[in-house]
Amino acid sequence: MSFEAAERIADAVLYEGYVLYPYRASAQKNQVRWQFGVVAPRSFSDATGSDPWWAQTECLVATDDAPAIDIRLRFLQAQARTVEHTSGDGGFEPAGLLRVGDHDVAGWDEGIARTHDVAGVELRDLLDQERLIPVSESGGQETELVQDDAGVVSGRITRERWPIDGSMRLSAERHGRFIRLRLRIENVTDWAGDDRDRAMRRSFLSAHLLLQVRGGAFVSLIDPPDDAVEAAASCANVRTWPVLVGEAGRRDLLLSSPIILYDYPAIAPESPRDLCDGTEIDEILALRVMTLTDEEKREARATDARARDIVDRTDAMPQDVFERLHGAVREAQPSGAVPGLVEWETLLNPPGQPAPQDDAVEIAGVRVARGSRVTVRPKRRADPIDLFMRDRVARVEGVYRDLEGVTHVAVVVADDAAGDLLAEYGRYLYYRPDELEPAGPRE
């Protein structure tokens, strides 16, 4: 059983949304956790009608043989971490932060990665009878005493987990020359109550499946061959999206993800490490981390080991690594050609034009160039960034002309604390001249 080719994208799925910028436990967006791949206790799901207690994957296997399937179920188990200071009477009392060595630790629900493997499942056996595979995780509690530099106990950290009981139901049926495989994950943990935070501690979190077939090939459900269109359409996937993974063209590996993906998803080569937000742009998140105050970084480091790693490596990121985060335009190539890269600047700085920092454009009779202040009046788009920028005063960083001769004015928000940092790294917002009004010099 080898899922090495799919591990990086599967890890991105496992930790998607685990902790979000600004990576602090106190941040509002980190108050409601576990948004993807939740399989909650059935009693909680039935009582609240919120998080589901089951998820179903159906996929197609093309075969003229007797194929076998290797299955890997991956999920996070919540582990509640509480921190306490020593009290005056020799006991312990809740603490916001606890100093441990060279960093602080805060109360938080950690996610412990769990894996359940089932190897060599013969599909012909599933044609005759459904197979039920129990999936459970035990509870537990560990307490760690924390000492100060003098060796005196200054507090303690308690980590507690609660048992989870569930199952995988496997079945299959023939559909012409294909076999349709069904895998259903269920959570039947004995639990009562309607408190979601507590129910998540008894849930499969970020649950997803990795499948490998031997003696057959998976069929793309996104782009099936002509003779598999009907069979692919018959697959009923509930809260899952099975896609082919690994090198393009490979058909023995499949990832069933709780996040919508395309076949052969991949992490951008410019991305050095996970930011718990695989669908975001690394450069934007890195820039935002750089704008955190020392106190905010201290709290982020105290929240979770993964958050601490994100802050530490962003602080220590070499310039050449950061510049790669700006990305690249990958030029479309004829089939069989070697993919090439095109520097984005060549698309916005055609030969013969002045450099953007030296160019200018006339707006309402006023010459606008680098350093000019303008008021933004978006017209062409209606995304959240444009709504945020409407009527804001911005500082011009350059005037760009694209290959079609269209003018784009690059700006940063004038009163944004991160504006200078964004300008330094060339992270601009672009507007047409008729979307801007001269605002005059800073008062």
Quick description:
The chain is an alpha+beta fold. It has helices spanning 7-14, 42-48, 123-128, 196-200, 229-233, 282-290, 294-303, 305-315, 319-324, 345-348, 384-389, 419-424, and strands at residues 54-62, 68-86, 92-94, 97-100, 103-106, 108-122, 131-137, 140-147, 153-161, 164-175, 178-187, 205-214, 217-218, 241-244, 253-257, 329-331, 340-342, 360-363, 366-369, 373-376, 393-401, 407-413, 429-431, 436-438.
Structure characterization notes:
The chain is of the alpha+beta class and 443 residues long. The chain has two domains: 33-266, no CATH class; 351-438, Roll (SH3 type barrels), CATH 2.30.30. The protein has twelve helices and 24 strands. Strands 2, 3, 6, 8, 9, 12, 14 and 15 form an eight-stranded antiparallel sheet that branches. Helix 7 (294-303) runs antiparallel to helix 8 (305-315). The chain starts with 6 loop residues before the first helix and ends in a 5-residue tail after the last strand. 31% of the residues are buried.
